[in-house]
Amino acid sequence: MQSAGKESTIRSLLGLKKYVIRYRYAILASFILVLLTNALMLVSPKILQMVFDELEQVLDDADRTLSSGRLVFFALLIFGVALLAGVLRFLQRRTIQNVARQMEYHLRADFFIHLQKLSAAYYDNVRTGDLMTRATSDLNAIRMVLSSAVMYTADATVFFGFAVVLMLRIDASLTLVALLPYPILAIFIRHLGKRLHVHYEGIQEAFSMLNTKVQENLSGVRVVKAYTLEQSEVAHFRELNEEFVGRNHRQIRLMSFFFPLFRFLPGIGIVVLLWMGGLHVIQEKITIGEFVAFNAYLMMLVRPMITLGFIVNTFERGAASMGRMNAILNEKPEIYDGENVKWNIKSIEGEIEFRNLHFAYPDGPPVLKNINLKVARGSTLAIVGGTGSGKSTLVTLISRIRQAERGTVFIDGVDIQDIPLNVLRSNIGVVEQEPFLFSDYLRNNIAYGVEASNEEEIREAAHTADLLAQIEEFPEGLETLLGERGATISGGQRQRSALARAILIKPKILILDDAFANVDTQTEDTILSRLAALMKDRTTILISHRISTVKNADQVIVLNEGSIVETGTHEQLLARNGIYAGIYETQLLQEELEEL
């Protein structure tokens, strides 16, 4: 069971292999500096041995003397060695810390790039707070492994090896006895590593829950305040906070038990040295100088043993964090450019066709059933239906936000899975009922997705979306800085900003998914009249609950429980006196009641 924990640590950290290979020369240079630094540090006890041996000879031989100049020479030699070792250690730390920061940079970049590649469906089942914890706290723990833990491990290993060799050369039997506690220490370290790995996984999970709670409360603060649930949310946060602190307390208790052992067990070796080493001096097996040097080496071994606790602690924390990162990095995108992609396709014309389309979400009932539909290039399709009828799902299949089965969705007669994703999506403009705006200037939100746009184009798109007049009333105009998700402007303004964004990219297919839900009918009529010229050259899909929005469409379909139950123009559907006509009559009645 203990080895399983270690194997898990090693397996988790193997994810860093490619970053280590990228900076292998810098890492090699740092290890060379480690060797040189430790070699110099081990020179000082040897100099002390020489000093004490000369003093012993002076005491034994009255004719011999040790001049003050000789002592100054030894002192300066020790000082020079210490100074040079300090310079090398500075270079060693700077090199490994720089490498660690560079590796952290690439890992963070790769993590973000990978998140961009994952399909939209993936984010339906993950918490934003959890992803943020992995991108911050977990990455910091991994960086500590790459910098401090690696450096201290190399330092301790090299120093221990060099010191033991020198100690064996002085007195092999004394060395073996003095090092007897260290195998016991190794057993404790193995046990500690396994326990720490489990503890840190739990700590990071608890921290993710805590971050998620904060993130959701900040994003949903209006809902919390509207329902006066501040105290309830505070109580829930306190519970999560206490759980996080409690897990940390358990880890602290574990480390508090083990850390004294890292001092106590090496201390036993020093006690043995004083007794047995003293006897060896009396028996003249070793000189006083050798005894002093041996004692210095053994005392110096205490430092790497103390740092060993830090090393194990850092490695296990980093391994637990790397395991959590690997869980994301190993996720495969559900939607990607397959082997059959036709890379020669550089654009699309906009003809859309659904052939015997069936679609269901994972582990869910069918959402769309036997959809057969053709939308001519440059025409306007309107989709009407009740909540949950499959309207929004149908249009997400066009841009492959959701993946339909091969052979069911075509654009320009080509299966959409054969069209490069970048080409497909860059030619589709989508405006949703709840559009997303970034915490950025209004100008940048409208121009999002366009590599280069001038002032005139942005203002023209805003004018088409009936937003320009309101923008000119803002003190900063297009330079207005929006709050998170565009919270500093109204819902209607957010929708029209998103519409202007979709217009600006000049898409071949324009999808308006209930894009006028937050504007009044008069504003809607204005926008639709301005869109008319744009829609002539583009395939447009309108999803709306308002008949007034869709009545001028070239084709109208009615969805009910995932199936197309009615198809035709506005006049044809009214003449059938079916579901569409019923919705129309209900809306007319509502308008009459509102006028009373």
Descriptors:
alpha/beta; six-stranded mixed sheet; four-stranded antiparallel sheet; 21 helices; 10 strands; 9% strand; elongated; disordered N terminus
Plain-language structure description:
The chain has 596 residues and is an alpha/beta fold. The chain has 21 helices and ten strands. It has a six-stranded mixed beta sheet with strand order 6-7-8-3-9-10. A four-stranded antiparallel beta sheet has the order 2-1-4-5, with no helix packed on it. Strand 9 and strand 10 form a beta hairpin. Helix 1 packs across helix 8 and helix 8 packs parallel to helix 11. The chain starts with a helix and ends with a helix.
Mean pLDDT: 84
Reading side by side through the largest sheet, how are the strands ordered?
Answer: 6-7-8-3-9-10
Euclidean distance between termini CA atoms:
78 Å
Strand content: 5-15%
Low-confidence stretches: 1-7
Number of helices: 21
Helical residues, percent: 55-70%
